[in-house]
Amino acid sequence: MKVAMLSPIAWRTPPRHYGPWENIVSLLTEGLVQRGVEVTLFATKDSKTKAKLVSVCPRGYEEDRNLLPKVWECLHISEVFERGNEFDLIHNHFDFLPLTYMNMTTTPLVTTIHGFSSPGILPVYKKYDGRTHYVAISDADRNPELHYIATVHHGIDLSRFLLQATPGDYLLFFGRIHHEKGTKECIQIARKTGMRLIIAGIIQDQDYFRQAVEPFLDNDRIMYVGSAGPEKRNDLLGGAFALLHPINFDEPFGLSVVEAMACGTPVLAVNRGSMPEVINHGYTGFLVADADEMAQVVPRVREIDRKECRRWVEKKFSVERMVDDYIRVYKKILAQENASKRTSCQKA
Predict the structure, then answer these.
(1) Is the dihedral of CA 185, 189, 194, 195 positive or negative?
(2) CATH number 3.40.50.2000 is the correct assignment for the domain at 2-155+318-347
(3) How far apart are CA 277 and CA 271, in angstroms?
(4) Can you give the three-state secondary structure of 92-113, one letter per residue?
(5) Assigned CATH class of 158-316
(6) pLDDT digit string (tens) for 130-162?
(7) Domain parsing of the chain, residue ranges
(8) Which of 118, 192, 324, 333 falls 20 to 30 Å from 205 in CA-CA distance?
(9) Which uninterrupted H or E stretch holds 267?
(10) Could you read off the pLDDT of 252-262 as tens digits, one per residue?
């Protein structure tokens, strides 16, 4: 089986610190290579992989602001589809834009929808519904107007996340600093409970950071430590008393939630989007209605067995399970394609 893996180019694959889509692409690519699948990874030139790497963009445009995103996105995507007939299948992780290139090749296309950034992008997905194959990253993120071949939850490399059986003394916010992720609410919870708060992640909304976060930073009780790479991520997640996830939107998946539980750290999350699929309520954390309730349940974190958090991730969210799921999707698509070709030949 020859698979073309189309990664985003906002960041390197795998990312140095932030880049959740690129992270999943890397984990899936390396896992497929280990299983003997012939993968060609289309990503930035500085990407690291055991697959064959094809690149046109020198580095992630979020890492080099001299690169015009739309220019390099067009060059990057067209490179895949102009060579599409070299592969048995193209796996798109680049959102909706590659769908508009699919008529350049007869090779089947599977698209993992990593969430809907806006309802405004839905018309593109609807136009190509039935002509490509959609994979959802959670049942909650399935759009009722689209048809899906599968739901495949993300998986993580458990060897990169160490179980810390003893809880730390701080609460943690880990993610992009934006209203959607509830950074401000984390500060409110920390102040209500009297616990320290560490904030880690990229600043996605500068105005939000300046108005809702920065005034409360004191480098003692409430600290911002920037974006965290792999080693720092493991230490921060594992050392936390709990990860706070007071989201203000329907979370498509929540990779940091799984990573925290892999380190043994319970998660307190607003019950929206995929959270009931990711958190085992009462066993790996608590699902709550809002930030006020979250502050009230912080003391109950001591009821959670940190080893159970790790076991839950091992059972449900390993990279090996994710790779298995995608191989099944690939085989199903190729079987459908072969059946369609046989039917066409019989009619002819």
Answers:
(1) negative
(2) yes
(3) 10
(4) ECCCCHHHHHHHHCCCCEEEEE
(5) alpha beta
(6) 999 999 999 999 999 999 999 999 999 999 999
(7) 2-155+318-347, 158-316
(8) 192
(9) strand 267-270
(10) 999 999 999 99
